[in-house]
Amino acid sequence: MQGVDVHSDKYKAIVLKAIAINTECIGYASAQVRSDPDVIKLLVRLNSNQLFHIHQDSLQDPELALELLSINPRVYKDLHPHAKNNIEVIRQAISSDLVNILQIPEEYRNDTDLIKNYFVTSKEKSLKYLPDKMQNNLEIVKIAISNNPEN
């Protein structure tokens, strides 16, 4: 009897079907399966709470992170810190109101467009954690005040 070719499309289709039927079976899959982008996307599409089984190195890839966020923004909390430090991932998280100002890496808190977008989309509007340069930016202050008069 020959062994199963775990790299074949047929094997992958079987794995994806099994996961679609019961997302808990991902816990029994190999690291290779748990790090496959298609498997990860399927779990996100299914709103699975099984993402903790995903191989964490897979959640470092900013491109995959952007795809996952477009499927389900709530997956942001499960991303690897490396992916969360990518400017495009941060922009996506801000537009979905998934981060507060302290979760934006400090090196990006001086990005005027990013901070303007944050104050337009976020429910939390405090200026106090911004660098002085941003607190003195009239355009940002106007946006923050118009959305939160307590500033």
Structural description of this entry:
Helices cover 48% and strands 0% of the residues. With 151 residues, the protein is an all-alpha fold. It is built from 9 helices and no strands. The N and C termini lie far apart (72 Å). It is elongated and about 60 Å long. Helix 7 runs parallel beside helix 9.
Mean pLDDT, rounded to whole units? Answer: 84
Weakly predicted, low-confidence segments: none
* Annotation, overall tally of beta strands: 0
Radius of gyration: 20 Å
Largest sheet properties: none
Tell me the β content: under 5%
How many helices? The count is 9
Element order, helices and strands?
A: HHHHHHHHH
What is the share of helical residues?
40-55%
* Category from helices, strands and their pairing: mainly alpha
Concise description?
This protein has 151 residues and is mainly alpha-helical. The chain contains nine helices and no strands.
Please specify the SSE layout and strand pairing.
Elements: H1 9-21, H2 31-34, H3 37-45, H4 62-71, H5 81-84, H6 87-95, H7 112-121, H8 132-135, H9 138-147
Short key terms for the protein model shown above:
single chain, 151 residues, mainly alpha
